Amino acid sequence: MEDLVLTLEGISKSYAGRRVVHNVTFSERRGQIVGLVGPNGAGKTTLIRIVMGILAPEEGRLAVLGTSDPAEIRQRVGYLPEERGLYQKQSVRAVLRYLAALKGLDARTADRRASAWLERLGIPGVEGRQVRELSRGMQQKVQFVAAVVHEPELLLLDEPFSGLDPLSRQQLRTVLRELAADGKTILLSSHEMAEVELLCPEVVMINLGRVVRAGSVDAIKREFGEHALLVKATGDLAGLPGVERVEPQNDLTKVVLAEGCDQGEFLVQAQASGVRFDHFQVALPSLEDVFVRLVKEAAEPRETD
C-alpha cells in the first residue's frame, strides 16, 4: 500500500545462539502512532534497532519509507534511544548541532529548529548549559529534540517518558499527537502500558520476542472484556436477575452479568425495577490487564492427545 511507512515480515534475531526476536510481522501507515509494548527483555529495543538499521535481522524482510538500505533509513528516521546518547560535558547547543550535522543540517538551521523545540517543550534558553547540569527530565527533552530536529518522516521512540514528570508526560503526548496529525509516523516502544493506552490507538504486544496480539487498542480490550457494565446508579443492583456480582470501582459500580444476559435488556429491567442510572458504560480491561492475561495463557501447559 502506498501509505505504508514501515513493514516487518518474519523478522527474527538471535544473540549468542538465543533467539530474542521470533518471526515478528507488522506494518504501520503514515500518520499512525503505534505502541510496541511488553515487559523489559521482551525484545522491543532489539526490534527498534533492527528498524533503525543498527542491527541486521537473521531472517525476514524489512522496508522503511520504501527502502531497506540501513544508511538511507538512518538519515530519514528519528531515533530516541532508551539509554541517553548525550555528551555530558558539552553544551546543549554543541550536542544538538553535532547530532543535527549527522543528519545533514547546517549549524544555523540546527540552532533555529532546536531553539524552537526547546521552547515548545518548556525549557527555553538552555542551549548554553552543559548537558550534565540539566535534570534527568530536561536531558530527556534534549534527547527528544535531537530525534526530531531534522524533521524525520518516521520517529522511533524507545521509552520516551523515562524521567519525565506528569506535566511533561502530558506535554509530550500532545506534541506526539500533533506530529501524527501532521503526517509523521511514530513507533513508540514502552513497558508503561498506561502511557501507551493514553496515546496509541494501535499496539503491537510482544512477549519473549513473539507478537502475542496486534491491532486496535479498543478492539483488543473488547475481545478480553468481561460481560459487565460500569454504572453510577441508585437502587438495588445486586438483587436484580442476571447479576452475578457487584463490585465498587472508585465512584462507579461494576456490575458483572451472567453469561447470556443481554446488557440492554438488563438496563431496561433494572429501570423498570426502580433503579435510576446517572451513568453507564461497558466495562473494559486495561491494556496491562489484557497483557498479563495473554502471558499467563501462553505459560499454561497445553493438553496433548
Provide an overview of this structure.
- By secondary structure, the chain is of the alpha/beta class.
- It folds into two domains: 4-221, Rossmann fold (3-Layer(aba) Sandwich), CATH 3.40.50.300; 226-282, Alpha-Beta Plaits (2-Layer Sandwich).
- The protein is 35% helix and 30% strand.
- It contains ten helices and 13 strands.
- The strands form three sheets. It has a six-stranded mixed β-sheet, sandwiched between helices. Strands 11-12-10-13 form a four-stranded antiparallel β-sheet, with helices on one face.
- A hairpin with a 2-residue loop joins strand 1 and strand 2.
- Helix 3 packs across helix 4.
- The two termini are 43 Å apart.
- The relative contact order is 0.13.
- The mean pLDDT is 90.
- Looking at this structure, what is the CATH superfamily of the largest domain? P-loop containing nucleotide triphosphate hydrolases
Question: Which stretches are poorly predicted, pLDDT < 50 over at least 5 residues?
Answer: none
Please bin the fraction of helical residues: 25-40%
- The strands making up the biggest β-sheet line up spatially as 5-6-7-3-8-9
- By CATH, the topology of the largest domain is Rossmann fold
Q: Round the mean pLDDT to the nearest integer and report it.
A: 90
Number of strands: 13
Q: What is the level 1 CATH name of the largest domain?
A: Alpha Beta
CATH architecture of the largest domain: 3-Layer(aba) Sandwich
Q: What Rg is obtained from the alpha carbons, in whole angstroms? A: 23 Å
Distance between the amino and carboxyl termini: 43 Å
Shape: globular
